[in-house]
Amino acid sequence: MSKTSCLILQGKKSFSISKLDQLNRAFNKANGLEALISCNEIYLISSQIAIDTELDEISQIVKGSQNIDTFLFLIGPRSGTITPWSSKTEDIFKNVGIKQIERVERFFGFNVSSFSDQSNLDLSLLFDRMTQSVYSNYESCTDFLNTDAQRHVSHINIIDGGIESLQKANKVFGFAMSNDEIEYLYDFYSKIARNPTDAELMMFAQANSEHCRHKIFNAKWTVGGISKNNTLFDLIKETSKQSPKGIISAYKDNAAITEGTEVERLNLGADFKYNLVKDSLNSTIKVETHNHPTAISPYPGAATGSGGEIRDEGATGRGAKPKIGLVGFNVSNLRIPQLPRSWEGDERKPERIASPLNIMIEAPIGAAAFNNEFGRPSTLGYFRSFETMFNENKNAFGYHKPIMLAGGIGEIRERNNFKLQISEGYHIVVLGGPAMLIGLGGGAASSVSSGDSDEDLDFASVQRDNAEMERRCQEVINACSSQDDSFIEFIHDVGAGGLSNAIPELAGDSDLGVYIDLDKIPNSDKSMSPMEIWSNESQERYVMAIHPDNKNAFEDICKRERCVYAFVGKTTLEKSVKLFDAKTNSYPVDVPLSMLFGDLPITDMNVSNSNKKNVNEDSSSNYLFSETLKKVLQHPTVASKSFLITIGDRTVGGMVARDQFIGPYQVPVSDYSMSLRSFTSNSGEVLTVGEKPTLAINNPAASMRMAMAEALCNMSGVHINGLDEVQVSANWMAATGEEVEDLSLREGVEALSKCCVDLKVSVPVGKDSLSMRTKWDDDSVEHTVKSPLSGVITAMAPVKDVTCSVTPELHTEKDSKIIYVQLNNNKRLAGSIFSEVTQSSYIETPDVDDMNAFKEMFNSVQELVSQNKILALHDVSDGGLITTLLEMSFTKRIGLDISIDSLSEESLNADLFSEEIGLVLQVLDQDVNDVIAQFTSNNLVVNEIGCPSSSKELTISNSENLLYKESVIKLERSWREVSHAIQAIRDNKSIADSELNLLLDEEHKGLYAKDAFDEKILSTFEIKKTKPKVAVLREQGVNGQMEMAAAFTLAGFEAIDVHMQDLLDNKVNLKDFNGLAACGGFSYGDVLGAGGGWSKTILHNNLVKDQFENFFSNESTFSLGVCNGCQMVSKLKDIIPGADYWPSFEKNLSDQFEARLAQVKVKKSDSVLLSDMEGWSMPIASAHGEGHVKFINNDLDNLMNSDQIALNFVNSNGSSTETYPLNPNGSVNGITGITAANGRVTIMMPHPERVFRKLQMSWKPDHWKEFSPWMQIFINAKKFTD
Q: Which one, of 471, 274, 268, lies nearest residue 375 by Cα?
């Protein structure tokens, strides 16, 4: 092993006061103590040579001190791993010119009051054993930096040990191979008379896992003794055969590609200038699951779930661009400690998996954090909590193995739709992060039931995330895909099986072989064996084929983006996979592709044709409506999902036309998400989700018909060109392996196939995860929790005009009525939320009994939407009609008077809690008759059931009696309980309380607009007379440059992409620009504080520092810093004239990333960018984790007295506010924008560049036209430079 010298520095406190208080309470509860925890960050910096001369600079960069305390124990990375924090911090040192540092790593030093020995303490709450270890002292931490010798390749001795050696290896390595596969391999190696290597077997196991090969979907089926002539995959592909309209690529690539349209695309040319060009842009759609990893370690499991799906989209065709994303979760009962629920019961689960509550605290943060840092808005999702009681056989339904769904849609240029046929001699490139011993065997591990594999192997199979590295990879892909002929001729993402799966797939798809040099694969752990290097699943990697002529130019792109890359081998005519190890002059892998992707025996599925269950039916009238309604609203599946949404950036990229929040109060009840195709077009895509797994216990076919119907009902409020343009991703989760579940899967797929064919909807993409079972022993008795068949439908359709759409937001300006549309009068309750909270049983589930009737309902709504005859629309789903009505009332916090003649005390529950397919519409009084006639002419059931009320009460009556009356605010508080409770556990409890209490503030009226913006100025102002240059500045990890460039381009600027590397390489000089815009994102992943690494790259490089100082002093220039750019520029205040009193921007008081549409007011200041905007108050996109201003001494008073405060968060009265969530970061006086240099330098945390068009806002007033008033900032910039 190699030895290194090591510097140890002590850094800042690790936790905020509120977070430390949470940890203290949890730690003391687990240990039965009343102790106090303290914690500091500790930095280990290693080098082979002395670094004494750089000691002061190193200390400044990490803000560390050599005066280090003694700690009871330290927590740090597991041996053999490198954290994303480490790699990003090393990048910072390299970019400021300190190149001799080999490794920087962060540890956390803990002390526990009154304790001098940690051996008897339960520390499990303080670290993740997936990624971290406990260290007793500094010496053990420094030992962590020493590298063991490389492990050797292993040979499995089948020549002497026979097939039993393979069987043993199968168990030891966790290959999860079937007996047929073991026999296949034994036969192959016996014929060539040699022993297989562990690298070859691991490669084979991953490539042929259920995860990768989809054996059950390609299996032969016999049902009830009758052989079926179609596989499950055949049934799915039949939908595309019957309705091929719009499909460009289906089941051929990493994602499906569907037809788009010609729009103006913001293009970044080879000269790094942005310009709008006409181009044909198509859509991609992909939805994945990451269930097993999320069960084992929720945060990294969900983070890499989203990251893996993003890579699938990016690696489609010759390179695509992810645009908007979705995330979904299914877990068992939450059992929130402070919210006991009558239907949940006691928790039983194996120790090896996370609890449902922990999953829903940690996994959503993991998924959101990856999406946020990568720069993809997550604008859609769902969450279901479901679990039954154990039966006499100790079997139950539930999601102990959760569903973690990650999906999205992207854009791809028409010219990049298809990968090219490459030939011999192409370079094989690995793009992205280095190999590490993480995520080994994930494909196989996810293909078996939880409990069937070794626990240590389970943990080894979960990956770790580095979204900032994936961002850099995507920038390389974007640069290539913008070319007339992309350098990327073939691309594949690296997922399950690592390089051992991705590189052979590239070869197989190209009908070629590959020769790979093991030593050329980027590798951060020199102790790894060839098998571990070849098969580890380190994330954020792609493999590509590059023509030799393009090698140097491709390298230049990678270097500019600071993206790790390696030319690891070449394609060969010999159709084999050869992995050469120069150190041992041997081939750890040397097999023909035919062995790897050979014709293995096809799986046979033989099931009976009976799936009937005996159920004793209860009476729904036995339960008090008022109590049941409260329970239904409190059920996590129905309740507010705000805690899942505000943690995710929903505006980055500037291409979002609809997210989850609705109305001036921003209530999370949207039925759909919408994206835009360009910054100048109204065309886009609509995305929806549908799932009804609880129905599958009784009726698998109905569950799939209802899932499809729910997805389409959610889409019905957006006008599309017809159902034949709807494309669907079908994701299948089931506990296959027992006959009843195998038959459920078959019935569900058959039902979906038929209903899609009937509706002319196609399914060009999907995924299966068929090991949804958890087994464990409890008191020597085996317990099993399995999921019901869970088919999740994600539907997408092109939209010609995103403004031709309606939402659940009620309108109060004119008299209107509430219309209820149904397919029939059935009120079936099996599988409903009502049945869950009352623990009652029913035989019949809701179903779509007549697909033609459903089609007529959809088409009728579409026609009415196009005619502007629907004011508001919401579908009936979980929780039934009553939930739909209440969610609509929450959007404006107004009452509803509901009157249904057929209602009675006995029918109230069935009528209002049944989850049959239906739609609720708000219609103007003058249009009621026409709307009703539209539906009745198509033989649908339609009734006028009430009207909005100003009373803020929900009343329900029949023709004779008042049946129910309650305050809407009180009901909304019940609906928000779950979100509040999890937010209070996860974040700062005081801010969770503040948000809930805002419901009681009668002064709070929600978002509003007060402005004097006249967009005619864009046509009268001589915008094209000059084209001043603005540097759209970014650092690695910045992701907001496109929307910034678009806003400046539309205001008449020549926007130029300037990467910090351009300045460091002295290829660009700021003196050549009129303006500078520092963009938002996560520079260096914010490892040294938000914007810290970026600012240090400037301040510790004199050449670059002088450029910035001169630019800020030049009175003919302007500067804008937004979000991460704001944080960065604030740290440059010593070189900005008049910025002496500026604050720093620290962690939000909520301890959480906060994404909101927030109300701000423009204050009196000399900001040239906010000229003539004083007093304007409008909503603006706000999305950050570190926006809380921190002043020292009297700087706040001085800043106020000098009129340098430019923007404040305000309440409904226009007064500056510190109330959360109106002020999402808790800054004093609501300060969120400041200025200096006589107004030439303005920085702000919110994002005007993301909402310069009104379409980009989830709420906007009626008087705005094409642009929002925030466009005035960019117009003012142009005026200043002219």
A: 471
CA distances from 425 to 507, 545, 577 (A): 12, 10, 14
Could you give the 3-state DSSP secondary structure of residue 924?
strand
pLDDT on residue 2: 43
Sign of the four-CA dihedral 898, 900, 906, 909:
negative
Cβ-based burial of 1173 (10 A; exposed 0-12, middle 13-18, buried ≥19)? buried
Angle, to 10 degrees, between the axis of helix 163-173 and the axis of helix 179-192?
130
Give residue-wise pLDDT tens across range 660-685: 999 999 999 999 999 999 999 999 99
Amino acid letter, residue 500 = S
Look up 1263 and say whether it is catalytic.
no
What is the spatial distance between Cα 1038 and Cα 1126, in angstroms, rounded to a whole number? 12
Mean pLDDT, to the nearest integer, of 447-457? 55
Tokens of 961: 């009696």
User: 684 and 674 in contact (C-beta within 8 Å)?
Assistant: yes
User: In this predicted structure, what is the pLDDT of residue 3?
Assistant: 47
Which pLDDT score, from 0 to 100, does residue 454 have? 57
Q: How far apart are CA 680 and CA 655, in angstroms?
A: 10
Q: Are 540 and 438 in contact (CB under 8 A)?
A: no
Distance from CA of residue 1139 to its chain's centroid?
37
Alpha carbon of residue 398 to chain centroid: 24
Tens of pLDDT along 33-87? 889 999 999 999 988 777 777 888 999 999 999 999 999 999 998 877 788 899 8
Q: What is the model's pLDDT at position 1025?
A: 75
Three-state secondary structure readout of 153-164: CCECCHHHHCHH
C-alpha to C-alpha distance for 794 and 714, rounded to whole angstroms: 11
Secondary structure of residue 648 in the 3-state scheme = coil
Q: Tell me which DSSP letter residue 302 carries.
A: H
Max alpha carbon distance in the chain (Å)? 91
Of 470, 1123, 1126, 1184, catalytic: 1123
- The neighbouring-strand residues paired with 1073 are none
Phi, psi dihedral angles at 509 (to 5 degrees): -65, -25
852: its two tokens? 């033609």
> Cβ(1037)–Cβ(1083) under 8 Å?
yes
Rounded Cα distance between 153 and 157, Å, is 13
Q: What is the pLDDT of residues 329-375, one digit of tens each?
A: 999 999 999 999 999 999 999 988 999 999 999 999 999 999 999 99
Predicted confidence band of residue 530 (pLDDT cuts 50, 70, 90): very high
- Which tokens sit at 1264? 């705005």
The predicted structure's pLDDT at residue 1160 = 98
Distance CA(677)–CA(655), nearest Å, equals 7
User: Is 233 in contact with 221 (CB distance < 8 Å)?
Assistant: no
Average pLDDT over residues 153-175: 92
Task: Give the residue, 3 or 1240, on which the prediction is more confident.
Answer: 1240
* Residue from 505, 725, 836, 1249 carrying the catalytic annotation: 1249
Q: Are the CB atoms for 1276 and 1027 separated by under 8 Å?
A: no
Can 1249 be counted among the known catalytic residues? Answer: yes
**Res 18: pLDDT:** 86
Per the listing, tokens 């969120």 go with 1232
Please name every residue paired with 589 in a beta bridge, in sequence order, or none if there are none: 579
